[in-house]
Structures are given as C-alpha cells and as structure tokens.
Amino acid sequence: MIAGHLQEKKGLFYIVLNCKDECGKRKPKWIPTGLPLKGNKKKAEGMLLEARQNFEATLQAEELAKEQVAAASADDPTDEEQVLFADFMEQWLEMMKYRVEITTHASYTFGVNGRIVPYFREKGIFLQDVQPKHLHDFYHKMLKEYHLSSGTLQHFHAYIRQALQYAFKMDMIPSNPADKAERPKRGQFIGSFYDSRELNQLFEAVKGDSIELAVLLTSFYGLRRSEIAGLKWKAINFQNQTLTIQHTVIPVSYGGKQITLEKDRAKNKASHRTLPLVPAFQELLQRILEEQQKNQALYKDSYSKAYKEYIYVDKLGERIKPGYITQHFPIILGKNEMRRIRFHDLRHSCASLLLANGVSMKEIQEWLGHSHFSTTANIYAHLDYSSKISSAQVMSNVLSFLPI
Fold first, then answer.
1. How far from the centroid of its chain's Cα atoms is residue 399's Cα?
2. Neighbour tally for 373: CB within 10 Å
3. Whole-structure pTM value
4. Which of 321, 211, 317 is nearest to 260 (CA)?
5. In sequence order, what are the residues at sequence separation of 6 or more whose Cβ sits closer than 8 angstroms to the Cβ of residue 90?
6. At 30, is the pLDDT very low, low, confident or very high (cuts 50, 70, 90)?
7. Are the C-beta atoms of 177 and 168 separated by less than 8 Å?
8. What is the 3-state secondary structure (H, E, C) of the chain?
C-alpha cells in the first residue's frame, strides 16, 4: 500500500500521499480533509487509511485499462475481451478520485453512477461500439423522461467526453465519438427575484431570526451561501471599511456521507473580491461581535471554540451550515405569506436592483464575483431595460418617418 501521512496546515488536517511521477521522482499528493485539528485526529487517520486504500484501487484500475488496451489491439477481439461502456465509466470515475477536488468528484459521481452507468448498462453497449447517436439518445431520454435541465446534461456530456478522451489517448478506441455528438444546448436562465418592496418586507420578516444575516448579505452584496458561511472576522476591516471574500464553507454529499469542506479560497479567482463595508453593515457586524463575546462569557465551557474565527455562528458558537440557510428560508416565506423564491434568488434580486438603477453589467460582474462577463450577461441581459431605452432614443433621433 502506498505510504502517506497527515500534515497540519492553517489549522486543518491534510492527507499527503507519497506518490511518484512517470520518471520515478517523488511528487507528493495533497488531499484536504476539511477537518480542524482539535478533536479530529482519529477521524483524519481514518481518512488517511481510506485514501491510501483508494489510491491502490486507482492504480489497479489503470493497470486494468492497460490490459484493455492490449485486448483492443487484438486482430479479432471477442466480446469477453471488450469492456462495457458502463464498466469503463465506473473505472474512469474511480481513477479520477484523486485527480480532482472532492466537490468536483462528488458531481462526477452523481452524474456517472446516478444516470450514465444505469442507462448504458441496460443498453449493453461496449466501449468500442459507442456512437454519437447513442449519446444523443441518452440526452434525449434524460431530458424528456427525467426532465433534467439542459445545464445538467451539459455536465453529463463533459464527463462522457472527458472519459472517452482518456480511452482515445490509451488507444482503446480509434476516435472520441463525443466530439461528433452535439452538446445539449443550454436554455436561457431566467431567475426569480424580489423587487425593493418585497426585499424590505423580507428584512422585516427575518429580524431576529437565525438567517437574518444571510438574507441581508445576499440581498445587498449578492454573496453565495458558501461565502456567507465562510466569512471570518479577519475578512472584515473596520478601519478601512472593507469586506473581503476569501474563504468558503461548502456542504458535499460524498461516499454516502454529508461532509463540510472549508476552503481558504473563493469559488474562482474573480470571486475573491473586496467590497465596501457600508455603515449599516459595519454597525451590524460590530453588534454581532459584541453578542458573540457576551455568549462566550455566558455559556463558558458550553460555548464552542472550534469556530471562533467565523462570523456566522449560533449562540453556542456552532457554525451555521449552508444547508440550514436554504432549508430555513422557505419556512420564513411561508410563515409570512410571501412569494416563494429560492434563497439563491436573492442574489438575482441584488443584480436586478443594480441594473434597474443604472449600474453597468461589468460592475455587476465584479460585485457578484462572476469569473466571466458572459456569465453575467447571459443571466441578466433580459433585465437590462435601461440600455434598450437608450437604443430606442438613438433610433428615434436618426429616423425621420416617426411622427413627432
């Protein structure tokens, strides 16, 4: 079994596997556990053992792939020498386990084990026989019978194409059939959002509630729930009046368990942003800090010290989980007979208000932390009514046939 050990870094346990590159040189592989140092050593040791065992399984899968290359190169391969596409996808998924982050692999697992493998196993199609039509049929069924979104199907297409590209590089197939398959087209997303009246009504409804801070931060700053749960006091500069998004807390369903990952980085490079801390939020955060200090003195040993760096904690110092925010939000709406929207739609509400009040699309991209301008434009272009007014005015000025 491959050697490995635990490493402490920034208050968390990391798994370090003693891997080697193709030239035999030592190339350690670091795997985040998401576990704080205090009280989690045994759990981290268990994860280390599992990581070492799974890495061995990955090596075995790669050896199996090499054997399949030899079988595929035979002049007259029999059915026994071929591999089912469903089996190949499972092998590829296992191989990717330690090549991508846990959050990414969790998405792979949902698509591959949940939809792709069951469909193609029932069809009994071999890897060498996969054709673009087979992929189109799969997308059509997922869309029409399971009502999956086009965005989800695009992810499935990406997984299949990546796996088949690996098979192509390993000479298991002569070409990648996914390159000839038409990728499912993503439909235009039109999110729900609250106007200013509804938002002010919501602010009244959540006063004193456990998700008040989350609602305010998402509505005003457009923060994601992972960014809210990951806010630390060191991200707040009261002197310079700034708020920096640089740490996230992400819930993941993985290996049949619900785990929480802490990352000292934002979702992407653009998501790492510094925003102005307006007076209202400065006062709110100072009040929260004072309340936390009072609770520490009041509850003493019952107060959790594990999350003292975090802003969003309950009275006993336990960090409020991202999942709780989205689960509790509809309850608040129901109690106050408000129009049902998702919690994430508050982020769209923030963008719609900015657009309606003359803020440019580029500025909104930076405010929300989108990595690409096209993302912002594709989501919110239909709301940009002010630009259409300008266009109408220009046309009115240059065309003389219109009545005055």
1. 49
2. 14
3. 0.70
4. 321
5. 112, 113, 117
6. confident
7. no
8. CCCEEEEEECCEEEEEECCECCCCCECCEEEEEEEECCCCHHHHHHHHHHHHHHHHHHHHHHHHHHHHHHHHCCCCCCHHHCCEHHHHHHHHHHHHHHCCCHHHHHHHHHHHHHHHHHHHHHHCCEHHHCCHHHHHHHHHHHHHCCCCCHHHHHHHHHHHHHHHHHHHHCCCCCCCHHHCCCCCCCCCCCCCCCCHHHHHHHHHHCCCCCCHHHHHHHHHHCCCHHHHHCCEHHHEECCCCEEEECCEEEEEEECCEEEEEEECCCCCHHHCEEEECCHHHHHHHHHHHHHHHHHHHHHHHHCCCCCCCECCECCCCCECCHHHHHHHHHHHHHHCCCCCCCCCHHHHHHHHHHHHCCCCHHHHHHHHCCCCHHHHHHHHHHHCHHHHHHHHHHHHHHCCCCCC
The pair of three-digit structure tokens given for residue 178, joined into one six-digit string: 């996914």
User: In one letter, which amino acid is 272?
Assistant: H
**Residue 300 — φ and ψ, nearest 5°?**
50, -115
pLDDT: is 129 or 187 the higher one? 129
- Identify whether the C-beta of residue 124 lies closer than 8 Å to the C-beta of residue 118: no
Q: How many CB atoms lie within 10 A of CB 140?
A: 12
Tell me which amino acid residue 99 is. R
Residue (of 115, 122, 129) closest to 83 by Cα position: 129
> Euclidean distance between the first and final Cα of the chain, in Å?
84
Q: In what order do the strands lie in the sheet with 12-17?
A: 4-9, 12-17, 29-36
Query: Residue 92: which of 6, 173, 27 has the closest Cα?
Result: 173
Q: Among all chains, which residue has been given the structure tokens 């635990």? A: 6
Quote the CA–CA distance of 240 and 159 in Å, as a whole number: 45
- Stated length of the chain: 404
> 218 with 225: CB under 8 angstroms?
yes
Mean pLDDT score of the chain: 86
- CB atoms near residue 132 (< 10 Å): 13
Contact 241, 235 (CB under 8 A): no
Give the model confidence (pLDDT) of 291-307 as tens digits: 999 999 999 999 999 99
Across the strands, what pairs with 236? Answer: 243
